[in-house]
């Protein structure tokens, strides 16, 4: 029929649209901030809202120290940690050695680590200046330090360094001469810095330990049974050294405490300069328990102004039209102050619960510091454990860091894809990264392994990883293509 296409019809449908309240928007915004950003935001809010004040709340003359305060009136007088819900008193007096509270709280003032303005390399240069080296040796040492990667490993072989020194710095240094200078650098802290591969890194750390029977066994395992160690063939190690299961377990427990990435304790590097990082969480192992606390740095304590609250009461009592207008303004500022404090408390609760979930899911890593112990974990896993939305977990973990005994790590580092072995077991991609690093470290540099050969090697070890995926993993850990590794 003509004109039928011009007929308009109205259809009524019912849909659900979720809109966030201003308070929820504020909570989401604060959740995305790092510790340093939060401090700046809090100070800005203090400047903007006269109903918000810095420091512990003062009691009025009609109140006593035992008065119950409004939960929404103060922020910063308590310290959130993963132990707040447990029997903190059971820890005894030694608790103060680990658990520090906010200034103004009932415990000692926390010694909060702030961002280190020195670079990764500045720390090594400071140690270098203490050495008695000739000008020529100093030039070699500076080049070696500049070639150390983010993990603290020397990523160039000595012949390549010799060639570079001759070509770019007009210094004709032999491999033996360079190695002598390298040995000086390998005495620097932390132990393991300047090692040429994982095996040497672990041996350097072992040799710094006091003499003992355990030290001898550790050195023997890493020097002559490294392949068995990296593949966790504990039975072979036990049989070869004629050790009991208890002796083997004890020595392996010591070995897995060694740091495979000594550079991580000096911080992350980017473009040869350390990022200025303030950790958002401070974590430690205490009598085999993993404990952490939020690092509130220099974030001020906050409370709602008692003067403003009293002022509102007086304005309401007066009842004139001008007084009512003033009361509306004062009330808006008081509501804003209370909402801000509540949002800060919600942020701490959300961050604490999320960090605890990450620890629970990645407990072996936080106990030993070995990245190969990281399990496959995605945002959804943490969301299910905490009951939060995936978007909330993403906000908590983006741009946040945790300081551990093994170094400072971004929370995103604990999220890793899984790779299935031929037996159906799922392991972290970090394990593939480790194998690729070891394979390329041990390869013949005149004929380096191609991605296809690396894929075949992984298949032999039970990991079915396509060549293209191998290339992706190789790039993730900064290993160049085969032709660039050829020397």
What this model shows, in words?
A 4-stranded mixed β-sheet has the order 6-5-8-9. A 3-stranded antiparallel β-sheet has the order 1-7-2. The protein folds into 3 domains: 21-112 and 277-416, no CATH class; 120-264, no CATH class; 418-485, Homeodomain-like (Arc Repressor Mutant, subunit A), CATH 1.10.10.60. The chain has helices at residues 22-31, 35-48, 95-98, 120-129, 135-146, 158-169, 175-185, 198-207, 213-224, 226-230, 234-241, 245-255, 306-318, 321-361, 363-368, 379-386, 390-397, 429-442, 451-460, 467-476, 482-485; strands at residues 52-54, 74-75, 269-270, 273-274, 281-286, 289-294, 302-304, 401-404, 407-410, 418-420, 426-428. The chain is of the alpha+beta class and 487 residues long. It is built from 21 helices and 11 strands. Strand 5 and strand 6 form a beta hairpin. The protein is 48% helix and 8% strand. Helix 4 (120-129) packs antiparallel against helix 5 (135-146).
Can you tag this structure with a few keywords?
single chain; 487 residues; alpha+beta; Arc Repressor Mutant, subunit A; 3 domains; four-stranded mixed β-sheet; three-stranded antiparallel β-sheet; 21 helices
Please give the share of residues in helix.
40-55%
Rough shape?
Answer: elongated
What ranges have pLDDT less than 50 throughout 5 or more consecutive residues? 60-69, 83-117, 268-275
The SS-based structural class is alpha+beta
Query: How many distinct folded domains?
Result: 3
Strand and helix map with partners:
Elements: H1 22-31, H2 35-48, E1 52-54, E2 74-75, H3 95-98, H4 120-129, H5 135-146, H6 158-169, H7 175-185, H8 198-207, H9 213-224, H10 226-230, H11 234-241, H12 245-255, E3 269-270, E4 273-274, E5 281-286, E6 289-294, E7 302-304, H13 306-318, H14 321-361, H15 363-368, H16 379-386, H17 390-397, E8 401-404, E9 407-410, E10 418-420, E11 426-428, H18 429-442, H19 451-460, H20 467-476, H21 482-485
Parallel strand pairs: 5-8
Antiparallel strand pairs: 1-7, 2-7, 3-4, 5-6, 8-9, 10-11
């Amino acid at each position: 029929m003509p004109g039928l296409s011009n007929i308009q019809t109205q259809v009524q449908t019912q849909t659900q649209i979720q809109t966030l309240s201003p308070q929820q928007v504020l909570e989401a915004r604060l959740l995305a901030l790092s510790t340093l950003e939060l401090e700046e935001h809090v100070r800005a809010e203090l400047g903007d809202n006269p109903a918000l004040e810095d420091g512990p709340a003062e009691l009025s003359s009609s109140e006593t120290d035992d008065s119950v305060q409004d939960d929404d009136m103060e922020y910063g007088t308590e310290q959130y940690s993963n132990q707040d819900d447990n029997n903190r008193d059971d820890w005894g007096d030694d608790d103060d050695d680990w658990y520090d509270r906010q200034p103004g709280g009932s415990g000692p003032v926390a010694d909060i680590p702030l961002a280190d303005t020195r670079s990764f390399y500045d720390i090594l240069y400071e140690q270098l200046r203490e050495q008695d080296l000739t000008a020529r040796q100093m030039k070699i040492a500076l080049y070696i330090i500049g070639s150390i990667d983010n993990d603290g490993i020397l990523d160039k072989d000595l012949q390549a360094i010799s060639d570079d020194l001759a070509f770019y710095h007009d210094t004709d240094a032999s491999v033996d001469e360079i190695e002598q200078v390298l040995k000086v650098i390998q005495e620097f802290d932390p132990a393991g810095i300047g090692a040429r591969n994982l095996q040497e890194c672990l041996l350097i750390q072992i040799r710094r330990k006091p003499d003992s029977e355990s030290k001898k066994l550790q050195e023997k395992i890493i020097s002559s049974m490294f392949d068995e160690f990296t593949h966790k063939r504990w039975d072979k190690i036990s049989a070869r050294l004629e050790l009991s299961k208890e002796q083997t377990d004890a020595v392996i427990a010591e070995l897995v405490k060694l740091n495979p990435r000594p550079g991580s304790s000096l911080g992350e590097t980017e473009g040869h300069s350390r990022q200025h990082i303030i950790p958002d969480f401070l974590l430690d192992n205490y009598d085999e328990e993993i404990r952490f606390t939020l690092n509130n740095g220099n974030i001020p304590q906050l409370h709602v102004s008692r003067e403003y609250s009293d002022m509102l009461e007086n304005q309401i009592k007066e009842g004139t039209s001008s007084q009512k207008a003033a009361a509306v303004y004062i009330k808006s500022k008081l509501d804003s102050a209370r909402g801000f404090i509540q949002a800060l408390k919600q942020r701490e609760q959300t961050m604490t619960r999320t960090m605890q979930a990450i620890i629970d899911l990645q407990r072996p890593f936080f106990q030993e510091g070995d990245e190969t112990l990281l399990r496959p974990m995605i945002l959804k896993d943490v969301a299910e454990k905490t009951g939060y939305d995936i978007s909330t977990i993403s906000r908590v973990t983006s741009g946040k860091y945790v300081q551990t005994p093994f170094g400072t790590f971004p929370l995103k580092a604990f999220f890793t894809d899984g790779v299935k072995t031929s037996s159906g077991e799922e392991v972290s991609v970090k394990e593939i990264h480790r194998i690729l690093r070891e394979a390329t470290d041990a390869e013949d540099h005149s004929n380096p392994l191609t991605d296809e050969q690396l894929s075949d090697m992984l298949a032999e070890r039970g990991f079915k990883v396509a060549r293209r995926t191998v290339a992706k993993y190789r790039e993730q850990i900064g290993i160049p293509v085969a032709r660039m590794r050829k020397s």
